[in-house]
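Task: sequence design from structure.
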């Protein structure tokens, strides 16, 4: 090894040494984080594999005992490999083993197939796993011991060595026969290992400092993909969150008092005269942004999304990748739109749409407001009955929605007894409400009548359009809805609005509310 080391300059050896410490530091920390995260598992990372060996990875993820064994091996392999690299023992074996582990990470989720929602950075074939794989191969191929030519460090370590080994061992009879070579060899081994001690000390200090003062945000981020070099999904700053939003029950299912509306996510924005807004919303809410928004909602305590079946496939992907568990209520819209306005879609097509939402995991379905308004105003109760029967036959919680209070009244008169109601509610104290005709600016046409009638109904009530599609501030809209009988509020929220809106709802709900209608959920 001495002859081989002479081929390299002091600084080349120093760079190899630092590289070994840096890679070891990274792998050791990845392993320790997983040890102390009781919720960590590689299941989502393996289950999302789409490349070669994907069947093998899927089998591991689907087999509990095998998954548990793989998680254990993965965690402790990272810790042992990282520690060995930092200390400088069995470096070649550790580097080769670490490289093999990183190659498996790469095969499971290469950058050209992984979702951008859970992978750090932007890659074209080459990602950090592959880069670190080659770095470890280099470390396995070159001498990576410390070039101890730094006299102050060498002198200090040599004094420690003499005090520990030479002075204490001099009293032992067998040491008298020890050769100078054996003492010198022992000293080299000690100095080689001790050269890493400052870095181990720095690692311990950084680790304890980070985890002893861990922020609220760090505790609530999700290690979505769990690879050795995969970043946690960044979902914004949660430090400003002031409390947890309460929950209420509809039948046996718990729903957060504040429900995330899905119109913005699916690209539908009530924008009055601003004709470009819906297009802008669709451009903003790409898949990765939708996933981020859903995860942000969950971390803020919002456990429910209310959306159209068009998003159900994305929600399934969100679940399957293990990013989050948000439940969704499906609005069952049965209308089509053209230049002449809304008209009914074929009944069978409507039923198929409802079934699609059920098949994709909707926890509840409701007859969408405009759809119920359309059919009930035309006396076509039979279509609503057929839709309700389909939902009930699948043992799904069902509701009826409306923009007009006349629809709710007609539903009650028809004998419908839904599990919940969806009804628009907002006041008219905003400037565009005074427009002489409807112009995408008003959604609850008779708020006082709505409040009075909904007070008489025993079922839970989810109020929506409480901000009149952005005309009313959430402080005002949420308060108005909760004070006037709503059990839940459904509101469209961007990811950057989530913390503020949840804080507003919490502040309203955590203080005495003057409401005539009791809580029905």
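Answer:
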């Amino acid at each position: 090894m001495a002859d081989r080391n002479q081929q390299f300059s002091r600084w080349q050896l120093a760079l190899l040494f630092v590289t070994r410490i840096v890679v070891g530091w990274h792998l050791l920390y990845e392993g320790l984080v997983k040890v102390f995260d009781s919720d960590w598992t590689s299941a989502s990372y393996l289950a999302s594999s789409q490349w070669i060996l994907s069947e093998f990875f899927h089998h591991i993820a689907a087999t509990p005992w095998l998954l548990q064994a793989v998680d254990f091996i993965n965690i402790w392999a990272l810790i042992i490999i990282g520690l060995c690299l930092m200390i400088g023992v069995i470096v070649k074996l550790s580097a080769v083993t670490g490289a093999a582990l990183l190659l498996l990470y790469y095969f499971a989720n290469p950058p050209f197939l992984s979702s951008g929602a859970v992978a750090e950075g932007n890659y074209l074939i080459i990602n950090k796993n592959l880069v670190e794989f080659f770095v470890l191969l280099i470390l396995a191929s070159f001498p990576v011991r410390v070039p101890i030519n730094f006299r102050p460090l060498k002198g200090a370590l040599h004094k420690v060595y003499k005090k520990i080994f030479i002075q204490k061992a001099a009293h032992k009879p067998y040491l008298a026969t020890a050769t100078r070579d054996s003492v010198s060899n022992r000293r080299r081994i000690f100095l080689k290992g001790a050269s890493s001690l400052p870095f181990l000390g720095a690692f311990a200090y950084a680790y304890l400092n980070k985890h002893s003062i861990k922020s609220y945000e760090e505790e609530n981020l999700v290690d979505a993909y769990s690879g050795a070099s995969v970043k946690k999904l960044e979902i914004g700053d949660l430090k400003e969150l002031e409390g947890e939003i309460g929950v209420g029950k509809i039948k046996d299912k718990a729903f957060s008092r504040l429900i995330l509306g899905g119109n913005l996510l699916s690209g539908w924005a009530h924008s009055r005269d601003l004709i470009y807004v819906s297009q802008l919303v669709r451009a903003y809410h790409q898949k990765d942004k939708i996933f981020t928004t859903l995860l942000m909602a969950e971390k803020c305590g919002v456990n429910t999304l209310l959306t159209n079946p068009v998003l159900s496939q994305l929600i399934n992907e969100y679940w399957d990748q293990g990013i989050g568990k948000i439940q969704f209520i499906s609005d069952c819209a049965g209308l089509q739109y053209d230049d002449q306005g809304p008209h009914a879609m074929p009944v069978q097509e409507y039923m198929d749409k409802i079934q699609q939402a059920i098949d994709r995991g909707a926890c509840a379905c409701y007859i969408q407001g405009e759809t119920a308004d359309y059919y009930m105003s035309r006396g076509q109760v039979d279509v609503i009955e057929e839709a309700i029967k389909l939902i009930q036959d699948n043992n799904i919680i069902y509701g009826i929605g409306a923009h007009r209070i006349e629809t709710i009244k007609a539903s009650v008169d028809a004998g419908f007894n839904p599990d919940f109601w969806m009804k628009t509610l907002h006041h008219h104290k905003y400037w565009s409400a005074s427009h002489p005709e409807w112009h995408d600016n008003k959604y609850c046409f008779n708020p006082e009548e709505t409040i009075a009638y909904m007070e008489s109904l025993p079922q839970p009530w989810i109020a929506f359009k409480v901000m009149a599609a952005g005309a009313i501030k959430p402080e005002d809209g949420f308060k108005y809805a909760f004070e006037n009988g709503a059990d839940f509020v459904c509101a469209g929220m961007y990811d950057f609005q989530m913390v503020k809106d949840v804080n507003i709802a919490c502040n309203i709900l955590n203080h005495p509310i003057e409401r005539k209608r009791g809580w029905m959920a």
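The chain has 21 helices and twelve strands.
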